[in-house]
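Might you be able to review the protein record set out just below?
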Amino acid sequence: MSEINTTPLVDVMLVLLIIFLIAVPVAIQTVEELEIPVFASSESDDKVENLLITVTTTDPEGRTPSTLNTAFTGATRDGECRIFLNNTTLVDSGELYDRAFERLDTIVTNAGGPDVIMQNPELIPQVHIRGDVNAPWRCVAGTIFNVQAAGYPTVGFISNPVDPN
């Protein structure tokens, strides 16, 4: 015989068809209208929020990255450093130190003072820096210096995973 026996294939397909004919209506009827509660977003009282900083530079024409300025062509190694707090607020190095210090001081005060916060390291916020691939090290190092001078003990980096292919 040079033909393939298709009887087992047809048997399996018929069994699967019967299973789906029974399972689909049951699955559809068991889920009724679902009411999802809506909550207002608020800052967590029990978990301290980390400080997110983005470091980049101006493009060759001196333009700053922005959602409003679409003419920005990308960071350059020779550009001026641009530091964004929480990805929105553009600050210079002096403002970065002042705002980081004020934020950490508020967190320490709300926790009950330095002695209380030192007993529970979970209350100490971290700094996460996302650096543009074209931002020079001087910009990133200056950012690290300012936040450590402001009192943040832990500074980490956020990176985008690279496709291995």
The longest helix spans residues 7-30.
